[in-house]
Amino acid sequence: MSLTAHERVYRGLRARVMHGLVAPGASMTLRGIAAEYGVSTTPAREAVRRLVAEGALKLSASGRVSTPELSNERIEELASLRALLEPELASRALPRAHIALIDRMQAINNVIDEMIVKGDAAGYVRTNLEFHRTLYLRAQAPAMLGLIETVWLQSGPTMRALYQRLQRRQAAENHRKIIAALKAGDNPGLRLAVRMDVTQGLRMLAG
Predict the structure, then answer these.
(1) Rounded distance, CA 26 to CA 66, Å?
(2) What is the pLDDT of residues 12-61, one digit of tens each?
(3) Among the listed residues 83, 88, 76, the one whose alpha carbon sits nearest the alpha carbon of residue 158
(4) Of the candidates 140, 135, 144, which has an alpha carbon nearest to the alpha carbon of residue 98?
C-alpha cells in the first residue's frame, strides 16, 4: 500500500529529527519542506503539526518551522524519563532475549564502533537507537515503546550535538555491559547498565 503524501512527509521528517539530521534550533519553511518532498503545502503542514504535537518541532504564526533548543531543565527531564522507562523495557525483554537477539545487538554495537571511528554523528545516533529498539521490541510493550520513541524524537538533534561535542566511546562500552547482562540473565545488572547508558550522555550535556 502506498503512503499518503502527508504520511510520507511525516515519516521522513520524523526520522530526520530523531536521528539528529536537523540541528537544534534549525529553521525550515513549510514551502521548503513541501518542495523537498514534492508535495503541496497542505500535507507538509499536516505532517509538521503532528510533529509539533509530539514535541519534535515548533511552528510559529508566520509559518517558520524549527527544532527546539532544549534547556538544561528539559534535558534533565528527558533523561529522567529515559531512566524510568528504558530499564523497565529492558527488564521485560530479558525473558525473551534469545541468543539470536544478543548476536544481532552485538553486530549493531560493532557498527556503532565504526561510526565513532568515522566520526559519523548522524549514523551514530541512528545506530544507537536501533540498538535500544532491537532490545525493547522484545518487551512486547508497545505503549511504553511509543512513549520512549517520543522522548527520542524530542532529544534527537540534541543527542547529535552532544556526540559532536564529546566524541566519546562511552555508549559502546555501556552497550557491552548491557549485552553481558543479557547473556548472564542478570536483571539488576541489565537495569543498571541501561540506566547508565541512557542518562549519561544527556546529563553530560546538561552539565
Answers:
(1) 5
(2) 999 999 988 888 888 998 899 999 999 999 999 999 999 999 999 988 88
(3) 76
(4) 135
